[in-house]
Automatic annotation (TrEMBL), chain A:
This is serine C-palmitoyltransferase. Residues 101-460 form the Aminotransferase class I/classII large domain. Its EC number is 2.3.1.50. It comes from Miscanthus lutarioriparius. It catalyses: L-serine + hexadecanoyl-CoA + H(+) = 3-oxosphinganine + CO2 + CoA. It holds the Pfam family Aminotran_1_2. The chain crosses the membrane at residues 6-23. GO terms for biological process: ceramide biosynthetic process; sphingosine biosynthetic process.
TrEMBL record, chain B:
InterPro entries: ORMDL. This is ORM1-like protein 3. Keywords: Membrane, Transmembrane, Transmembrane helix. Pfam families: ORMDL. It is found in: Membrane. It comes from Miscanthus lutarioriparius. The keyword Membrane applies.
Length: 489, 162
């Protein structure tokens, strides 16, 4: 739920209308001017038909320099961004050899494992020499090493479930598991803001998909009741299986899921729950065990817990943790396990070392310090931004904080101006977010020091004033009004 | 509380529409933007051409007819290579909104707008001939295109799939 000034809503809609109108006008003239050129299709059908690539050509390409910026160092708290230039209004970008050192406010580097770490990196290099960069084989065949079994056990105990299974890619974990769990005749109820991988997996499964309003357990109950009463479409037979899919932290909102309420609703109607902890595992909770620990939910109440190693553990890949029977079933049926190359051994070692650091098993308390640091950093940053008058989404303790921009023109303005002042931020627009709600998403890391955060705040405040995104009244005004009253008295 | 000059805030709950092409229509401020846009275009036409107000409304009505017919009832699919795997590639925008449900508030609003434009334009031109005929065609085509019975109907195969 975001609150925006009404005038901002009107101007944002008008801006998008204007951009759309200009895009159509340009397309119209392009069609006229190209009518004389001979078509080089040679009888083949065109790749994009009609309006399909309109958004990419006329809206995205105009501000292409704000997205996908190449970097030349590890994505630590400070990193080197390659400078690019364009000769044709951003249709093509050319890299230069110059780089700028920028503050990194965009990487999902929650615990600071993205750059070289004193415990993890030597062990990763050792495992690279011992096991080589890739197993070149599937888990079921020759790709199962000692490291993989060790990590599966470690992940299972870390998360609090009996067993776990690993996959080489986080996106694939969702999109290949959901079809293995539910098929035709089943029902998937997913949160309206779920990640694309879940949507893809749900569509690929063949089950009926229904959506409930984001983070609204009352609406979830309504949808469940309606669907259970109605049964399968057309035949009205009872559903074979109902799975409710929610995420721990929603990456575009920074919000935590209302997990206790969702679990109680699901238990009442005997639906299974699937929790995607891509952003919350390792980043929140007192010992880093994710949203279950933070909200006090027993992991045994969630049927399937999914997570990725890309965000907090500085590696790649994903995992599913569930009961022994479910994991055994997945090992026999999931194509991502039977046919896909297993996780690269150095990557597995990185996760093992990272989890050992978090648990304190490396002999130091760096893990606990990192967890405390990221919590402090996130709360400090969020509080300061809100005091300055920005509209910041997300709950306390969540390291993801989107700053609302709304207007499409403010997206490149904010992004470019911040880069000029050596702060790299990630901006997100339609269609990854709803049309009106474009935002700049800040991800805080445990490797950001207090000075880094203060510098980031200064730059964002200056740029925010320039661009005009301080939609809420600044709190200072209230205190000066109170002081004036006191003076009168 | 409520000092003058304080902006008026609205709440924007993310709508439950999965079709990114149409979900923008469920946000607050869309209807107002539409009406304000029509009004400003009328002012623009009036100031640039210096014709009578009725003729300006006729121009707005006919331009509105052309543009909305093209974008709501002619163009099919979505303007981005969406991950929806092309399930909307045979549906016009009008058939996509509100998930295909008929007679919702948005649809009723969009059906009323051409009728109101028609009434204003015909009244201000005193129902005189060439303008009246053109305005009537515009409103007739637009309202018929928006009727629930015309959902997914392609008359004589016009604009049917490739």
């Amino acid at each position: 739920m975001v609150r925006l000034p009404y005038v901002t809503a009107l101007t944002t809609l008008f801006s998008y209308g204007l951009l759309f109108a200009f895009g159509q006008l340009r397309d119209f003239f392009r069609r006229i001017l190209d009518a004389r050129k001979p078509s080089n299709l040679k009888g083949y059908a065109p790749i994009c038909l009609g309006l399909e690539d309109f958004y990419t050509r006329r809206l995205y390409l105009r501000i292409q320099d704000c997205f996908g910026r190449p970097i030349t160092s590890a994505p630590d708290a400070w990193f080197d961004v390659v400078e690019r230039y364009s000769n044709d209004c951003n249709k093509t970008l050319h890299r230069t050899t110059a780089t700028t050192k920028c503050l990194n406010l965009g990487s999902y580097n929650y615990l600071g494992f993205a750059a070289a770490d004193e415990y993890c990196t030597p062990r990763v290099i050792e495992s690279l020499k011992k096991y080589s960069a890739s197993t070149c084989s599937v888990r079921a065949d020759g790709g199962n090493t000692k490291l993989h079994t060790e990590l599966e056990l470690l992940v299972a105990t870390f998360v609090g479930k009996p067993a776990a299974i690993l996959f080489g890619m986080g996106y694939v974990t969702n999109s290949a598991i959901i079809p293995a769990l539910v098929g035709k005749g089943g029902l998937i109820i997913s949160d309206s803001l779920n990640h694309n991988s879940i949507v893809n997996g749900a569509r690929g499964s063949g089950a009926t998909v229904r959506v409930f309003q984001h983070n609204n357990p009352a609406h979830l109950e309504e949808v469940l009741r309606e669907q259970i009463a109605g049964g399968q479409p057309r035949t009205h037979r009872p559903w074979k299986k109902i799975i409710v899919i929610v995420e721990g932290i929603y990456s575009m909102e920074g919000e935590l899921c209302k997990l206790p309420e969702v679990i109680s609703v699901c238990k009442k109607y005997k639906a299974y729950t699937y929790l995607d902890e891509a952003h919350s595992i390792g980043a929140i909770g007192k010992t880093g065990r994710g949203v279950c620990e933070l909200l006090g939910v027993d992991p045994a109440d969630v049927d399937i817990m999914m997570g990725t190693f890309t965000k907090s553990f500085g590696s790649c890949g994903g995992y599913i943790a569930a009961s022994n029977e479910i994991i055994h079933h997945l090992k026999l049926t999931c194509p991502a396990h039977i046919y896909a190359t297993s996780m690269s051994p150095p990557a597995v070692q990185q996760v093992i070392s990272a989890i050992k650091v978090i648990l304190g098993e490396d002999g130091t308390n760096r893990g606990a310090k990192k967890l405390a640091q990221i919590r402090e950093n996130s709360n400090f940053f969020r509080l300061e931004l809100q005091k300055m008058g920005f509209e910041v989404l997300g709950d306390n303790d969540s390291p993801v904080m989107p700053i609302m921009l709304y207007n499409p023109a403010k997206i490149p303005a904010f992004s470019r101006e911040c880069l000029r002042q050596n702060v790299a931020v990630v901006t997100v627009a339609f269609p990854a977010t709803p049309l009106l709600l474009a935002r700049a998403r800040i991800c805080i890391s445990a490797s950001h020091s207090r000075e880094d955060l203060i510098k980031g705040l200064e730059v964002i405040s200056k740029v925010g004033d320039l661009v005009g995104i301080k939609y809420f009244p600044v709190e200072q005004e209230k205190t000066t009004a109170v002081e004036k009253l006191k003076k009168i008295q | 509380m409520g000092r003058r000059g304080e902006p008026y805030y609205v709440e924007a709950a993310p709508p439950v529409d999965v079709n990114k092409n149409t979900e923008w229509f469920m946000y607050p401020g869309v209807w107002t933007t539409y009406i304000l846009l029509l009004f400003f275009v009328w002012l623009l036409v009036l100031s640039v051409s210096g014709c009578s107000p009725g003729a300006a409304w006729t121009v707005v009505n006919l331009a509105h007819f052309a543009i909305t017919y093209h974008f709501f009832h002619w163009k099919k699919g979505t303007p981005f290579a969406a991950d929806d795997q092309g399930i909307y590639s045979r549906l016009t925008w009008w058939e996509q909104i509100d998930n295909g449900q008929q007679l919702t508030r948005n649809r009723k609003f969009l059906t009323v707008v051409p009728v109101v434009l028609y009434l204003i334009a015909s009244h201000l031109t005193d129902y005189k001939q060439p303008m009246f005929f053109l305005n009537t065609i515009a409103v007739f085509v637009l309202v018929v295109a928006k009727l629930p019975n015309m959902h997914k109907v392609r008359i004589f195969g016009i604009n049917a799939d490739i």
